[in-house]
User: Fold this.
Amino acid sequence: MTPAPTDVPQRRGASHDEEQGQDRDAVISVRGLWKVFGPKADRVPKSSELCGLGRRELMERTGCTAAVRDVRFDVAPGEVFVVMGLSGSGKSTLVRCLTRLVEPTAGEVVLEGEDIRTADARRLRELRRNRFSMVFQHFGLLPHRRVVDNVAYGLEIRGMGRAERVKRALEVVELVGLAGYENSYPDQLSGGMQQRVGLARALAGDPGILFFDEPFSALDPLIRRDMQNEVIRLHREVGKTMVFITHDLSEALKLGDRILIMRDGRTVQCGTGDELVGAPADDYVREFVKDVPRADVLTLRWIMRDPRPDDALDGPELGPGVVVREATRAVLAAEKPVRVVEEGRLLGVVGDEEILAVVAGGEGGA
Ligand SMILES: Nc1ncnc2c1ncn2[C@@H]1O[C@H](COP(=O)(O)OP(=O)(O)OP(=O)(O)O)[C@@H](O)[C@H]1O
Assistant:
């Protein structure tokens, strides 16, 4: 969802190597994060022996569950970062650790430059009121308050005067497409509309970071799609940094600039959608992505090849981040191979063969 320089959909490249050091511009920076539930939980991250145990062994030996195990990542300003995994993989616990709704057992969490593990209760309250917002599956709307007052609720808690907060609430109500429903009560709205109120409430305080915990999983598929599009549109308009939990890969691919895949509390892979599909880290990820329409996710960088001596090198030019589906027409219409060029440098070429291998469901050179 990074704004693309052209009309052709592009995917962000691998600009955040997990192996590199701390990203100084990161809005969220997580290092060595653990959450262990159970007795004497903090001994687990400290012991290399206990750290190495699987879920069942750890439970048998210590009575503990390690819901998050040694997770690290950085989220860039304005990025939509998705945490994905099957039920029980630790997604909710991980994201709750970021705002200390769940207290981390070990590790470092720095949000907008502030080490939130050292924040006292008062500072935490302040941060939750002013800097972060959460959108949950259960909207948590106040049933006896009208839409506008639900949206203004957080502003009221901050001490904002009535006229100012109503003005701000009406702006965000409009932003999320609920103009005309300001005076309705939550039970007069459909599930999708209630979720829009939840979104508006989260946006009202102009937070630095928005956290979404499976917000759309209870909605029926069509409304869910609407809401996903809504998040994409809102992200374009307001450009907020977002952390989004889902167990649905297509949702992750649609919304995420990058996706962190969790299994048993650990990071299995963290990358862009095309990286996950083009180079899955292991069989678990491969299994996850096997039904993804590759042409919709892979970009030309994944299917280009080196030019052969007989290739004409004066064909049309496209960037390596162009999605295969979007490049198909141009490549098939061209008489000569399409040149994949980045900053004036020829990276490779793509011809009919490479395109058809992906569009027809082949391996696509990954
Ligand atoms: N308060 C708790 N006490 C003990 N164990 C917990 C607690 N909360 C979570 N767990 C365990 O931690 C692991 C991760 O749970 P978590 O809810 O974070 O996973 P999830 O990926 O978000 O799952 P789901 O998609 O079902 O919500 C699970 O084994 C869960 O049973």
In short: Residues 75-104+119-293 form a domain with the Rossmann fold fold (CATH 3.40.50.300). The two ends are 23 Å apart (CA to CA). Residues 37, 65, 67, 85, 87-93, 247 surround adenosine-5'-triphosphate (CB under 6 Å).
